[in-house]
Write a structure and sequence with these properties.
The chain is an all-beta fold and about 110 residues long. It contains no helices and eleven strands. About 0% of the residues lie in helices and about 55% in strands. The chain is globular, with a radius of gyration of 13 Å.
Length: about 110
């Protein structure tokens, strides 16, 4: 499966963003899809993910201000993040688990200005 993340850009602190992860094929059978991010000089970290049954998990750093959803009709996954902080600045990546393999999309840069 090929994944393409989009929707990044420059956002003011306190604002919100919506990222899209577009898949090249049906996602209804993908057991898990996730969003990760990598800030400058730091390791890639999990932001959150969504299972085939729409159960979601989130990193503590985004709990309460993050929503992840999947759209099986349009083969896409979305990340909505609000109350943005400078520390949310990172390259955001989406991933998908398929038959035991993890697939990654290219990242989309989110820069939060204070």
């Amino acid at each position: 499966v090929q994944l393409q993340a989009s929707g990044g850009g420059l956002v003011q602190a306190g604002g919100s963003l919506r990222l899209t992860c577009q898949a090249s094929e049906n996602i209804d059978n993908l057991p898990y899809m996730g969003w990760y991010r990598q800030a400058p000089g730091k390791q890639r970290e999990l932001v959150g993910g969504i299972s085939i049954g729409d159960a979601t998990t989130f990193a503590d750093s985004v709990k309460g201000r993050c929503t992840i959803s999947r759209d099986n009709v349009n083969n896409a996954m979305y990340l909505q993040l609000s109350s943005l902080k400078a520390e949310d600045t990172a390259v955001y990546y989406c991933s998908a688990l398929k038959r035991g393999d993890v697939y990654w999309g290219q990242g989309t840069l989110v820069t939060v200005s204070s």
